[in-house]
Specification:
mainly alpha, 303 residues, ABC transporter, permease protein, transmembrane helix, cell membrane, transport, MetI-like fold, 2 strands, ABC_transporter_permease, 14 helices
Length: 303
């Protein structure tokens, strides 16, 4: 074999692209195992249990749609739905408005990293710690809030009474999450070119008019993402309720997620709890798809 032939073969071997398939599979394998073990398999298992009667002590007994029929006729379930929707409306409304305001102020007044870290600080506190902190602050006997209000109003305010419990819990969670939401919106504001605002000023548009005609429309994809994330998270509220009120007083804060937990781990009715969880999954999936299409989250007006 001639030297030129050997050199030609070596050249072809060197030009042959190296496949990174095995390396890529090795990198995604741990995440795939976690996805299957902690998400996909529990989902399949939960859907199966929703068609059974199961209490850990006896074998699963297939009951068909009995759990779903019971769910439709369960007054406590529908009360939990109403309470959850009330919480979702308050939480999403306050959180979105405040986050948008904070993000705009950060963009217009300062872009300091220190300010951003201060805004994000409440989000770094766990939900349980935040709930315990505010439970002590708002306590109607020893809380500092009532110690300040009582001399002014003449009486203590029971923030966790039947009428005020859900708004109070919503405000606590808004306090914790608004900084993170504001930073998401702030990132969206950074993507809007200054030339757009300069053109608006040249046309004589006021700051308020540019906010509604330029900022909000161009922020639509980010706002859609924020609304979808906030909606899903709000429907799954649990830890704040569990720490602060345990669903009381008289089911006033028994949100859907807490009712599912109580049925599964308090009364060991895993089949019925799974049916409610599947119902919640379908509702959230439908709401997410509807929000995505109505807000045109996959489109942008910057092109």
């Amino acid at each position: 074999m001639s030297t030129s032939t050997l050199l030609a073969r070596q050249s072809r071997r060197q030009r042959k692209p190296r496949s990174d398939l095995k390396l890529g599979l090795a990198f995604i394998l741990p995440a795939t195992i976690g996805l299957v073990a902690f998400y996909i398999w529990p989902l399949i298992r939960g859907i199966w249990l929703s068609f059974t009667e199961y209490n850990l002590l006896t074998p699963e007994e297939f009951t068909g749609l009995d759990n779903y029929k019971r769910m439709v006729q369960d007054d406590t379930f529908w009360n939990a739905v109403v309470v959850t929707v009330e919480y979702v409306i308050i939480n999403i409304g306050l959180q979105t408005i405040l986050a948008l305001l904070i993000a705009v102020l950060m963009q217009r007044l300062t872009q300091s990293t220190f300010v951003r870290s201060i805004v994000l600080t409440p989000y770094l506190v766990s939900n349980v710690v935040a709930a315990m902190l505010w439970l002590w602050i708002l306590d109607n006997t020893l809380g500092i809030t009532n110690q300040l209000l009582e001399p002014l109003t003449g009486s203590a305010v029971d923030f966790f009474s039947s009428s005020m419990a859900i708004p109070t819990i919503a405000i606590i969670n808004v306090w914790r999450h608004v900084g993170y939401t504001a930073l998401l919106i702030f990132a969206g504001l950074q993507s809007i070119p200054n030339t757009v605002y300069e053109a608006g000023k040249m046309d004589g548009a006021s700051e308020w008019r540019m906010f509604w005609r330029i900022t909000v429309p161009l922020l639509r994809p980010i706002l859609a993402l924020v609304l979808i994330m906030t909606m899903i998270g709000s429907f799954q509220v649990f830890d704040t309720v569990s720490v602060a009120t345990q669903g009381g007083p008289v089911n006033a804060t028994r949100v859907l997620q807490y009712y599912i937990y109580d049925m599964a781990f308090g009364r060991f009715q895993f089949g019925y709890a799974s049916a409610m969880a599947v119902g919640l999954l379908l509702v959230l999936a439908a709401i997410t798809i509807l929000q995505y299409r109505m807000t045109r989250a996959g489109e942008t007006d910057l092109d």
